[in-house]
Amino acid sequence: MQNLIKRFGALAAIAVFVGATTLVGCGGSGNNPGDSDQGEAVQEDASGAIKLHTVKDGETIKLAYVTNGINEFWDIAAAGVKAAAKDFDVEAEVLMPPKGVVDQKRMIENALAKGIDGLAISPIDAENQVAFINQAAKVTNVITQDSDAPDSNRLCFVGMDNYKAGRDAGKLIKEVIPEGGKVMIFVGRLEQLNSQQRRQGIIDELIDAPMQDGNNLTVSPSAKVIKGDKYEILDTLTDNFDYAKAKSNAEDTIASHPDIACMVGLFAYNIPNCLQAVEGAGKLNQIKMVSFDEAADTLAGIAAGTVHGTVSQQPFEYGYHSIRILKGLAQGDESILPEGGTLEVPVVIVKKENVEAFSKKLAELKAQGA
Length: 370
Hints:
- There is one protein chain.
- This protein is an alpha/beta fold.
- Helix content is 39%, strand content 19%.
- It has helices at residues 2-8, 72-88, 101-113, 126-137, 162-176, 193-206, 243-256, 270-280, 296-304, 315-330, 355-369; strands spanning 21-25, 43-44, 50-51, 62-66, 91-95, 118-121, 141-145, 157-159, 181-187, 226-227, 231-238, 260-265, 288-292, 309-312, 342-344, 348-350.
- Helix 2 (72-88) links the parallel strand 4 (62-66) and strand 5 (91-95).
C-alpha cells in the first residue's frame, strides 16, 4: 500500500471535464439488484467476521464514485478514478450531484438499481445520511472518501485528516499575518464533516488550542466572533456551491470589514472567487489569502504572490485508491482494507517556492488520467 501511495504521493492534480456523470473503464454489464448472488455487503457470520459483497469469477466489476458537487477538484479525483479503472480493469462511473444531498441520494439510488459492486461516497451531510449509507451498505460495498461518515457502516475512509489539514492552514495564516489580525473563513457547506474539521483545525491553531480528535470535535459556534491573543475569526460564510454567492460573500466582507487581514477558503473554488472580489476592490496583496486544494487560479495566485499558500489534499489519489479498494472488496479481499479503517492521504503544502514543481507534476498526472 505504501508503494501505491508513493506512486502518486508527490501531489495530484488534473483538470479533466467529466460532466455530471462520466463512465470510465471497460464495458460490460453487472449484477441486477434482484439477482440471488447480490447478497449483503455488511453482514456477519457466526464468528463476527464481515462478509463482503463479491462478484462471480469473470464478471465485470461495476463501481460508482460519488462526489458532493461539481468542481475542478472533483475533475481531478475523476482523473484518478479513470486511471484506476484502466489499471484494475473495472468499470467505474463518476457521479457529480449538482444540487446537493437530494441529487446525491437520487444518483446513488439509480446506481444501486443498476447493481453496482461498490460505492465510494463523499457524504454531503454525514450525520443525517447515516441511515441512507447503511441501507446502501446492505446491497453493496460502501466506502467514504473526501469526507467521512464514521458512524455509518462504511467499510473504510479514504482521504486526508481534515482536522490536521485545518491546523496546517492555520499555520499558513500565522506565516502570512504573523502580527495577527481579522480572519474570515469561506466554505460551501458546514454540514459536511470535512468542513467542520478543517474549520475547527484553523480556529484551534489560531487560538493555540490543544489538538483534538478530528472525529470527536468540540466545535466552535459559527456566526460568532472567536478571539485569540492575536487573531480574530470573524465568522464562517457559506455559499452552498453557488459561485456568485461565494464572490458576493467576499465582497460583503471587504465592505463590512475594511481592515480584514486574511481570507481563508476551505473549498477549492472559494479563494478563486475571493481573488476576484479582492482584485475588484483594489486590495490585491493587501488582503492575504490561504486556500485548500489546487484550483488553477489559486496556483496562479501563489505564483504571483497574491495567495500565500494552499493545502492540497491530492484528490487524484482519492479517486485512484477508492477504485483500487472497491475492486479488492468486490473480489472478497478484506486485506485491502486499511488498518484502522482509514487510508490517510498525505497533504502537500504549496507555496511560492514549490508551486512550479507542483504544476509540473500536474502535467504528469494529466497524462495518467487521460
